[in-house]
């Protein structure tokens, strides 16, 4: 699962029962998440991995992190919040690009459905 949040961008996978890897391209994103949810987990650095930084969490820790992200969601427009957040602002153009690509796919799907 990908999560684009005001605190960071995360790729989350379940590697084994009760073992979740919360992965990020930027360490600061994981530091933000840990601070937000109050968990004391190690941030691992795997230099050769596609997502260099990872937190390995059990189910309870994973759910605490997800709940914290939901509890602190307090903005009416995601891209505007990213533009206002100094340590996330560098991702804004990527989020705009993703938005445009998915909007185009939506248009294409709508056209196909009308045929």
Write structural notes for this entry.
- This protein is an alpha+beta fold and 115 residues long.
- The protein has 4 helices and 5 strands, in the order E-E-E-H-E-E-H-H-H.
- Strand 4 (43-45) and strand 5 form a beta hairpin.
- The mean pLDDT is 96.
Q: Span from first to last CA?
A: 32 Å
Overall pLDDT level: 96
- The name of the CATH topology of the largest domain is Alpha-Beta Plaits
Order of helices and strands: EEEHEEHHH
Oligomer: single chain
The count of strands amounts to: 5
| Unreliably modeled segments | none
Question: Which architecture name of the largest domain does CATH use?
Answer: 2-Layer Sandwich
The CATH top-level class label of the largest domain: Alpha Beta
Structural class by SSE content: alpha+beta
Largest sheet: 5 strands, antiparallel
The general outline is: globular
Binned strand content: 15-25%
Question: What is the strand arrangement across the widest sheet?
Answer: 1-2-3-5-4
Q: How many helices does DSSP assign?
A: 4
Radius of gyration: 16 Å
Q: What portion of residues is helical?
A: 40-55%
Q: How many domains in all?
A: 2
